[in-house]
Design brief:
CATH class of the domain at 124-231: Alpha Beta
Number of strands: 12
Radius of gyration: 19 Å
Helix content: 25-40%
Strand content: 15-25%
Order of helices and strands: EEHEHEHHEHEEEHEHEHEEH
Length: 284
């Protein structure tokens, strides 16, 4: 059975790009589901799939995050991976879809979980904002803060893989140097800059409009935004990328992993293992 992928909101489950990609399970907020029901649902997932990889944005509510850790602790299960992803919510949704695609490939659960850190480097995630006064996840200078008070000002912000902020009309936003598709989620900001200017500049090969995740306004500090994420659209390329990285065995839980940290128990590789790591895409 494929590894189960789980998320904390329905907006993080983007439409599949093929007929094979499975959906993701929903891990509901404590206000929406009693603990007993949440435990029962997770137990079923583990029994049916063997392993569960739960991915969620870093800015979900503390109560929701505590619920995830409580479920894992009460079930005393080492088959549940909790991936707290410091990507903007739409970037998380794009990454979750890639994990859903990988879950039906010939990768072990440990490789699928640890692949999240690798794949996040290839997601260009940002937003068009009308104000950066409440933006605290990307460095913003005092001068830029002052400019955001000027009526009609708009800013393009790249949060991942390398933070960058520009005023629209005052520079270019650095984009990927490889073929991508662009996911676009519109908030309350009325602008076509992302599709009419950014997409051609980044030479994206396709644009997909999706629903704005519920966590996006909190992450970006405003509801007047258009969020975007450029990503590798071809699963065969994603598969080759993950396959090209040397696999290790976690000395703590015994699962396979790629990179320098286990996706399930979060144990790092020993320094000796890191020194022997082959040069590859993770070290590029």
């Amino acid at each position: 059975m494929p590894t189960a992928i789980a998320v904390t909101s329905t907006e993080l489950v983007l439409p599949p790009q093929d007929h094979q990609t499975p959906t993701a399970a929903l891990l509901q907020h404590p206000d929406a589901q009693p603990l007993e029901a949440a435990l029962a649902d997770m137990q079923v997932l583990v029994e049916q799939h063997g392993y569960v990889v739960a991915a969620y944005p870093a800015n979900i509510s503390p109560a929701h995050e505590r619920r995830l850790h409580t479920i894992r602790a009460v079930l005393e299960s080492d088959r549940i991976a909790l991936l707290k992803l410091d990507l903007p919510p739409l970037g998380v949704a794009v990454l979750v879809r890639q994990l859903r695609q990988l879950s039906i490939c010939d990768f072990s659960a440990g490789v699928v979980a640890s692949a999240a850190r690798l794949l996040s480097h290839y997601i260009y995630s940002g937003a068009l904002l009308n104000s950066v006064t409440r933006l605290d996840r990307v460095p913003v200078s005092l001068k830029t803060h002052a400019k955001s008070w000027v009526p009609g000002s708009q800013f393009a912000v790249l949060a991942n893989p390398t933070p960058q902020l520009i005023k629209i009309g005052g520079g270019d936003l650095a984009g990927p140097e490889f073929g991508t598709h662009l996911a676009v989620a519109k908030g309350q900001l009325q602008s076509d800059w992302v599709t009419s200017t950014l997409a051609p500049a980044w030479q994206v090969q396709g644009v997909q409009e999706v629903t704005l995740p519920a966590e996006s306004a909190g992450w970006w500090g405003t509801s007047k935004l258009v969020e975007f994420a450029a990503f590798l659209p071809n699963i065969s390329i994603v598969y080759q990328l993950v396959s090209s990285v040397r696999r290790e065995v976690c000395t703590w839980c015994g699962l396979e992993l790629i990179g320098d940290r286990c996706g399930f128990c979060a144990a790092p590789l020993s320094s000796a293992e890191n020194q022997n790591h082959a040069q590859g895409v993770l070290n590029a």
